[in-house]
Amino acid sequence: MNNRQVRLKGLVIKEFLQIWRDPSSLAIAFVLPVFLLLLFGYGVSLDAKHIPIGWVVDKPTTETAGFTASFAQSEYFQSRHYGNMKSAKKAMQFRKINAIIHLRGDFSRQLFKQNSPAIQVIINGVDANSARLTSGYVQGAWNKWITHLAEVRGIPISKPVIAEQRIWYNSAVLSKDFLVPGLIAVIMTLIGALLTAMVMAREWERGTLEAMIATPVSMLEVLLGKMIPYYLLGMGGMLLSIAMAVFLFEVPLLGSFWVLLVTGTLFLLVALGMGLLISVVSKNQFVAGQTAIIVTFLPAFILSGFIFDIGSMPSVVQGFTYLVAARYFVTILQTVFLAGNVWAIILPNAAALLLMAVVFFSLAIKKAPQRLE
Fold it and tell me: CA nearest 216: which of 16, 366, 367, 371?
């Protein structure tokens, strides 16, 4: 073992000892992923189920009973009946129900008449996403019921288009299968960028960086000594997250586990490079931590496609997302988990991560102090 290897080994051991003395690093690497995965896996859902709806039936008939019964068997709705529109509207004002379905007294007579609305649907639009889903569910339930009723009675009904839906990659349409893989990128951003953003700044604050510069240790060796322990912590957090995703939340892993490891390494290198660059430039732990959250965590959470669809964003914001490393890794994660090894998607995004890793490490080395001033 040559002198450089001995020095690097000593720096790595020193950093591991520092991590061991500071339990917050281990907590961020292993406790925080568990907390976030449990929170998003069980507590956060984009699925609209058990939507409370209020029924107002002016004149009960066989048809109104059949229509309301079709909703009672659905997992998407929870039906509540009101005697009049006034009480139903009051219930909506107090957020007890999200929608009102009003069947007028001439409901049965107007069913199959052209250009004659048979039902009135009022939806609470405060939550726009929930309102859209509720509207779609009610429309779908209505079309299915009226078509079935027409077939039973032998009444011809105009059906210019018959839609047969087929959902690929997430056939169960479960939001956790979409959220949990993307959350791994957010977790690794926290581990890689937030922790490494502190390491060089801590040396600046304590005055120990000058002592290391005065020794034969090169700045490249110092940066590698800082990076290697946090790389191992980050990969440990990633393995824990993948295990929880597959075995606890039962997210299907259709692609290769080794592809995840390789691309995860590339993304973690990007996160580590960003953290080191922030740490070298800021020279203050508080400033470094705040900068890491603003520059790395928030863009990874908001602009990566983890929750919000990038295609729905304004064009200027979509262009900005290309600077967010998590965008590329979230795409890889969701592809490998839910679609498999789609190389046309994996390889370009992996190449983008490799380029960003080279850029950030080059900047970190360039900005790091090479000698005492």
Answer: 371
191: its two tokens: 């581990």
Q: Are 77 and 50 in contact (CB under 8 A)?
A: yes
Rounded Cα distance, 20 and 101, in Å: 60
Question: In which residue are the tokens 């056939």 written?
Answer: 171
Same domain, 340 and 193: yes
* Same domain for 148 and 209: no
For residue range 344-366, list pLDDT tens digits in order: 999 999 999 999 999 998 898 88
**How far is residue 68's CA from residue 171's CA, in Å, rounded to a whole number?**
28
Residue 55 and residue 36 share a domain: no
pTM of the model: 0.79
What whole-number distance in Å separates Cα of residue 75 and Cα of residue 65? 18
pLDDT at 97 over 80: yes
> CB–CB of 365/340 below 8 Å?
no
What are the helix (H) ranges across 22-84?
A: 23-26, 32-38, 62-72
**Helix pair 219-243, 175-189: axis angle to 10 deg:** 160
Do 358 and 320 share a structural domain? Answer: yes
Tell me which DSSP letter residue 194 carries: I
As a residue count, the chain comes to 373
- In the chain, the amino acid numbered 60 is P
Q: Which helix (H) or strand (E) holds 53?
A: strand 51-57
The domain total for the chain is 2
- Which pair of tokens denotes residue 108? 């049965």
For position 161, what pLDDT does the model report? Answer: 45
What is the rounded CA–CA span in Å between residue 110 and residue 270?
63
The side-by-side arrangement of strands in the sheet containing 99-103 is 77-82, 51-57, 99-103, 119-123
Whether residue 260 contacts residue 242, with contact meaning beta carbons closer than 8 Å, is answered with yes
pLDDT confidence of 160, banded at 50, 70, 90?
very low
